[in-house]
Amino acid sequence: xxxxxxxxxxxxxxxxxxxxxxxxxxxxxxxxxxxxxxxxxxxxxxxxxxxxxxxxxxxxxxxxxxxxxxxxxxxxxxxxxxxxxxxxxxxx
Length: 92
Description:
There is one protein chain. This protein has 92 residues and is an alpha+beta fold. It is built from 2 helices and 3 strands; from the N terminus they run E-H-E-E-H. Strands 1-3-2 form a 3-stranded antiparallel beta sheet. The model has no long low-confidence stretch (mean pLDDT 86).
């Protein structure tokens, strides 16, 4: 019997993005094939002074896809002037 894979996630806290810019980033991400299934994009909108957050959730077997999507997300964020200083990738 195969044990279920525990999902992993790569989180980006998007400081300095207002709601409009966050919506634009999210739109670009949701229309980009790099973020297709089996990856999942989990979203926490910026509210009340708290920054927004995007998390790429994936199964351990989809790690290669997730790392490629992470690189693509960094490119999308740079388009909107968001500098990514630190990223935590599970298992690295």
